[in-house]
């Protein structure tokens, strides 16, 4: 999922769940920051050393392409924060495949339900955990490792009735080295499905995975329902789930805001939030001007420390449950 979901949809769901605008912004910013929390300079450890001196244990939850290629920290990033293992199957690779409603994703939901408002870090914990939980819908069927299990065949997708299957086939056929590379590589995550899993307006399928087609807007709405119920319970309001009107609002946005550029989709979501198209109760000036900024958290020493504490807590929580299942591949170090 992209910023239009992790920040914008999460913000709307938090406001609907009766969180104030300030807390909703912390929850939504934390959720998106999981994707943006990466090593900007993989060739220097100065930033990390400075943070450690300030009592902050940095752990990255996303990576630039360079680290993906070199494999530096791949498992420690993609498994716990984006491809939560489903723990199903016989082989290690099969058990690492991300699945919605899995044993581990349900345990994560229960962990978030235990969050209380007297915990000063509740917004950061919710944001980090809800990012990972939401991704179990988007990334289902793929694993956060380099493995043949992530290969797909006959990828087809469209948003407005125009399939680009032929264009992809023509490109690959005309670049045999690309075809050979794709057929022989052990892809990371959903790279062979390109960005299909994360774009809310896409319908797509492959020969074996989602052979009958997957409508992302339906998956994203299902994720939103579960996330909303968690937010309602933590917010101490009646757990009603989304109303039909709220479902229609979200579905309309998921299906109609169509652009390959996630920033374009983000800007349209923000416009609709600012104009209160979502009928947010107690709409205030913060709602009218809210925007995503990494600086909201990273620019505040206390917020930054809280965010990284929750990033580390989540990592260790996943690590311990994988170990209990006989899967021991996550390191302990906070900076790598």
Describe what you observe in this structure.
The structure is a single chain. The chain is an all-alpha fold. The chain has one domain. Helices cover 54% and strands 2% of the residues. The protein is built from 16 helices and 3 strands. A 3-stranded antiparallel β-sheet has the order 1-2-3. A hairpin with an 8-residue loop joins strand 2 and strand 3. Helix 1 packs across helix 11 and helix 8 crosses helix 16.
Number of domains: 1
Helices and strands, in order, run as HHHHHHHHEHHEEHHHHHH
Our estimate of the beta-strand percent is under 5%
Strand order of the largest sheet: 1-2-3
- Largest sheet data: 3 strands, antiparallel
- The helical percent reads 40-55%
Q: Quick one: overall form?
A: globular
Rg over C-alpha atoms, rounded to the nearest angstrom = 20 Å
Work out the helix count.
16
Q: What is shown here, in short?
A:
This protein is 54% helix and 2% strand. It is mostly helical. It is globular and about 50 Å long.
